[in-house]
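In this section we walk through a basic example: taking a raw amino acid sequence and producing a predicted 3D structure, encoded as discrete structure tokens. The instruction is simple. Fold the sequence below.
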Amino acid sequence: MKHIHFIGICGVAMSALATAFHKQGYKVTGSDKGFYPPVSDQLTSIGIPYYPGWHVDKMTADDDPDLVVVGNVASSTNPEWTYIQKKGIKYLSYPEALAEFFIKDTSLVVSGTYGKTSTSALLSWTLSKLAADPSYMFGGLVDGIDSAHIGNSDISIMEGDEYKSARWDEKAKFFHYKPTHLVLTALEWDHADIYKTEASYFDAFEQLIQMIPQTGMVVVNKDETKAWKIAQKSKSQVLSFGSADADYVYSNVSQNDQGLRFAIKFGNQNQKIEMPILGDYMLKNITACFAMCHYLGYNPQAIADALQTFPGIKRRLEKRFKGDYTVIDDIAHSPAKARNTLQTLRNIYSGKIIAVFEPNTGNRQPEAIPGYDHAFENADMIVIPRLTKIKIDPHASKEPLDGQRLAEIVQKTHPNVHHIEDDDELVSLLKQEATSGDVIVFLGSHGFRGMIEAMS
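The resulting token sequence is shown next.
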């Protein structure tokens, strides 16, 4: 196998996978419907050729590819997707590619409604610094480390996403990763477009728990009742972390806009940790990483030394501008994630918090409406921008929420909500409202069309 082509290469995860294959010596090419920084800059800088649109002649310019990794952007009428099926060219979904090339005998999977990207990134960073040379994949960008890597050890670390694997494969991505060890961060119903009921969502995680062998390990957040309850069904050993009454307890916490200081208590030991990242929610992710690394046999001080060099993840409480007011970018694309981010900011900042929120596709479904109640209570003002267009399922009984309807839903439990379709008007309002000491936070998985840059 020499040539691997990616249909849908511009996503953070797909581009990271493409980069990992490129660094292994494969010829890698890619196509997508559009390219934007930082992914486009990264692909260009390392020399991966890509093109916009779907063009069989470009994909096959140097003969047919040996393997095609097919992203969810490939519809049934996509000409490249149609061609590879007609020609019988081998193809894999993104999680299938990870399963075939990345997964090792000791398979660490990080899963949960939120915290999985940060925790899998922390584990990848820490074990790499500890010279374990794991294979890994996480869906974020961290300065100083690739988002995907094929290592030489028998350890792999995967972000275990519960979203569907591919258009032809409705099961969760994490079922492909053959987990021997699991970190379970938190559970709260999400992705209502895939999991139509809360019960179906939790059932997927219960099946995941059952996959962990008796010789494996589950590290679980004991503060999260639903996660803790499901973890008890594992046949493996279970280690807990949390704020109290757990195997690994974080305590003596102090935080400001420069970072976190705290200690982790385990057994009769205390390990002090200081990190230059925002967000007390990261305490859970850091402690989970510490617990797993300690279980794997690494020295506590060595783990702490590695952790303390972690620079943070792009778009996770990323401080984009600090002047009279502070501008923060965060990928919180669901009401549950927005609630946690806003709580964190309220714990750090005393000024007004103004939130610009755009949910992802799943959280624009009618089934997601109950989750919006009181989700924004730590914001002083909420602004719903022009929402990114999404494809509407022709068989859906109801249309997804539009911006005005979303604003009305949030208004039921918050007195100060605005829906503004025009980006320039939105930026003008933010500049008018923000005063010294205030925070403007952009919450959502999309790029906000230059509005963040316009605030600096």
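Looking at the output, two observations stand out. The longest helix spans residues 116-129. The mean pLDDT is 94. In the next section we compare this with other chains.
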